[in-house]
Amino acid sequence: MRSLTKAENFGAIDADNDRLLTTTFEDHEAFLDLVAMRKFLIIGKKGSGKTAIFKRMITTTDSEDPEVFAFGHTFSDYPWDHHERQARAGIPDFDKFTHSWKYLTMLTASKMLLNYDQALPFDEASMEALEKIESFVIDTYGSRDPDVTQIFTPNKRLKLHPNIQVNFGVLKGSVSPDSVPMEDLPLVVQDVNRNLLDYVLTCLHPEHRYYICFDQLDLGFDPEDASYISRLIGLLLACRDINLAARNAGKQLCVAVFLRDDIYETLRFEDKNKLTENFVSLIEWDTPRTNRSLKDLMEKRFQAVLRADPDEDVHWTDVFDENQEMPGRQSKYQHILDRTYLRPRDMIKFTNAILENYKERANKESKDTTKFRNLDVSAARQGYSEYLNAELEDEIYKHLPEYKKYLEAARIGG
After folding, report:
1. I want to staple 39 with a disulfide (CB 3.0 to 4.6 A). Which of 97, 220, 281, 290 is the partner?
2. Cβ atoms < 10 Å from Cβ of 346
3. pTM for the predicted model, two decimal places
4. Smallest Cα–Cα separation from 228: which of 261, 201, 266?
């Protein structure tokens, strides 16, 4: 094993900047549920690993599996203001955005079918359906590979005839089915979605798997914004309906959502319990409901950073001196774990802080010291506590803006 003094760090606390994410990815049960299309709603605490799973899903390469195709939506992809214009009036809040999400998802699926899967069409029916999708997409958006951020742009005009069969009687008298303004999409969106879903399901190769993933929905979270809450509920309902339709058609399409558990708890809508029981996979670490531990996750990172040859295994006890217990007769692992929210980012941050303090000590001491000791862990607690306090503020502030007053009251009372 390489010396700990040679290690720079054990990764970053956020998946977007974590150089070790790909090589040390941990196959959590939530990831396996999604790959197998058993569950589509992946929820967990901030920093629990949702974006890590999202990035792993959408970066599957042809060399890994040429029969798997994935597309990922992130916050900048969501046309929030145009979603608002597409809301259908006169129906319950929880359902008024469902059809605009379905339309966005169907256009994403169409984009994948037209540009990603080179094995299509695979039979006569899929050829006919793919031609109709291509004609509609090109006529409406000017390209077979449309920009998903521009799906609801007001200057776009839908060309429905002859490939999309709808009730044109609901349109204004001056509007032609060859050129329907985007502002009129809500009038015909149910029929448009039904047509596109039929075409997409016909085109999907029965031996291939397709994933459409939605992440970073929490970046716009505001518990006081009823419209935001309605948009989230609409997305969940849209995904449920599309996934069930794909399953019933015998096709392997999964539309997945990655969402913070505290946000999910704020949502109230009909059949939420059914959705939770049937389609939610929870990301947890070191609990009775999972076999995954943060120790296993860190050992993969230790191996990536410290092993001297490809066949070497680097274990927790090769890095931490567990022969010496922490105060309270705790192991170092349990001592660290008790000071986290049981999240990968906390464990990575704490271990990086320990490494930093260890290297300072190792540079001062003349004798060789090969493992993290109690004093390294204790010295790291101050810096880690400052990080955790900032994390607490990020996570609680929107729910409880005056939370610091309550913490101070608890401190004085204690």
Report:
1. 281
2. 24
3. 0.90
4. 266
CA dihedral 108, 110, 111, 112 (to 10 degrees): 90
Looking at the structure, tell me whether residues 305 and 276 fall in a common domain: no
Does 21 reside within a domain? no
Query: Quick count: other Cβ atoms within 10 Å of Cβ 365?
Result: 9
The first and second tokens of residue 300, run together, are 């993969």
Query: Residue 77 in contact with residue 276, Cβ under 8 Å?
Result: no
Say yes or no to pLDDT of 231 above 80. Answer: yes
Structure tokens at 249: 């058609």
Burial of 84 (0-12, 13-18, 19+ CB in 10 A): middle
Q: What is the pLDDT of residues 102-124, one digit of tens each?
A: 999 999 999 999 999 999 999 99
Peptide bond before residue 162 is cis, with ω within 30 degrees of 0:
yes
pLDDT digit string, tens, across residues 351-407: 999 999 999 998 887 665 789 999 999 999 999 999 998 887 766 656 566 666 666
Q: Which of 191, 192, 187, 86 is nearest to 133 (CA)?
A: 192
CA distance linking residue 35 with residue 68, whole number of Å: 10
* In-domain check, residue 19: no
Q: Where are the beta strands (DSSP E) in 202-266?
A: 209-214, 252-260
What DSSP element (H or E) covers 181? strand 180-181
Of residues 340, 359, 357, the one with CA closest to residue 298: 340
Tokens (6 digits) for 330 = 């705790």
Range of the domain at 406: 4-11+292-413
